[in-house]
Specification:
By secondary structure, this protein is of the alpha+beta class. It is elongated.
Length: 385
């Protein structure tokens, strides 16, 4: 406790210099922590989002690209043991000349049973609404300057203009999924994306036993060589890898910043000032041992590094979860004409905190160890001279 008290008093004697050091240190750590928190939260948010997708679906590839597949394949797939339900899905992309945005068009005759965050027209039956209109995301409303009850004009695959009444708008809370989404009845969606009545985009499969997903996927793959089988686990892994790769670019950049900062601190600490040398000489003259001097310098370094790290973590939390990460978000998420304006839910794991501490505190203490050893092994008389 005496050494700890002395270390605190020693730091307070040069508080202006130590304060500047902590601020710079906290900013460097804060940038690294922001990347860790943002990436971790985005991964968690994506995992929750993907939970509502079917565990397995099949697609037809031609020339390495996704092409429409016959709906009749559904009957053959459904005969495989262990499959609970098989249903075709109708979706595609539509380039909106009016805004320059690429919209996602989905066909469904029963979206109300599957989708939340919807605002419907008042005094009308919801199922009746979708059978006679369109559900849209907030991005379409904003870019087209429309509102609930207006008509949305689209061009079908033959270039013919068709209009649909906007009978439902997704809540902003679902922007991550629905910002550019248009949901139409299946027949109307087929007209827009150019699907014949006998074709669908892909076929989703529900399975009784989740443990059998991989096995059933292998059976489908062996039975239908022309189809590609995609599992929810594969899609989730792809997103996790994508966010890790994007986050890794910034983490490597911040690592270089931290290492450069530690190198600067080591260089500064390795050249002890005359006052610091004199202080160490006096301490050794009054009976301090080498271990005591080392512990003193490590205690000073621990106080500085832990304080700066905690401040950096607080700054990162404020930057990511309160101000919505304005610096990192455009780079880590991507870009689009209809950029989804959403707020990530605060999520910080113990592993994230330990990762930040292991990068900032441990290297800093290691960087102060050698200078501290040099000062501790200097003879008292030489240090005082």
């Amino acid at each position: 406790m005496n050494i700890l008290n002395y270390a605190v008093l020693s730091l307070l004697r040069s508080w202006k210099k130590q304060f500047a050091l902590i601020i710079i240190y906290a900013l460097v750590v804060g940038f690294y922590a922001s990347v860790v928190f943002f990436t971790s939260s985005l991964k968690t948010e994506t995992s929750h989002t993907l939970e509502n997708l079917p565990p397995l679906w099949t697609q037809k590839l031609q020339g390495g690209r996704l092409v429409p597949m016959p709906i009749s394949v559904r009957d053959s797939i459904s005969k495989i043991r262990g499959i609970k339900k098989v249903f075709p899905r109708y979706w595609g992309y539509f380039f909106d000349d009016a805004t320059g945005a690429v919209l996602t068009v989905m066909g469904s005759d029963f979206p109300n049973e599957e989708i939340d965050f919807l605002e419907f027209k008042e005094n009308q039956n919801q199922q009746e609404n979708i059978n006679n209109g369109v559900l849209v995301g907030t991005g379409i409303i904003e870019t087209r300057k429309l509102q609930l009850g207006d008509f949305l004009s689209l061009n079908d695959v033959n270039g013919k203009k068709v209009s649909y009444e906007i009978v439902g708008v997704f809540d902003a809370k679902s922007d991550l999924l629905t910002k550019d989404l248009i949901i139409l009845p299946v027949k109307e969606a087929q007209k827009i994306i150019g699907l014949e009545d006998s074709l669908c985009t892909d076929i989703a499969v529900e399975i009784y036993n989740p443990e059998e997903i991989e096995n059933i996927g292998k059976k489908i793959d062996a039975t239908f060589p022309s189809l590609r089988v995609v599992t929810l686990a594969q899609l989730s892994s792809t997103y996790q890898t994508l966010f890790s790769w994007r986050g890794g670019i910034f983490i490597y950049g911040s690592l270089l910043s931290v290492l450069a900062f530690l190198l600067l601190m080591w260089e500064r600490a390795s050249g002890l000032s005359s006052n610091e040398k004199k202080e160490l000489g006096i301490l050794k003259a009054i009976g301090w041992q080498i271990n005591d001097v080392l512990f003193l310098k490590l205690t000073e370094g621990a106080i500085l590094s832990i304080t700066a790290t905690l401040l950096g973590i607080i700054l990162a939390y404020i930057h990511v979860f309160i101000f919505n990460s304005p610096i990192l978000k455009p780079f880590l998420v991507g870009w689009s004409v209809l950029y989804p304006a959403y707020d990530l839910q605060p999520f910080v794991s113990v592993g994230d905190i330990l990762s930040v501490f292991s990068l900032s505190v441990v290297p800093y203490l290691a960087a102060t160890l050698f200078p501290a050893w040099r000062g501790a092994t200097t003879e008292a008389a030489d240090a005082m001279r």
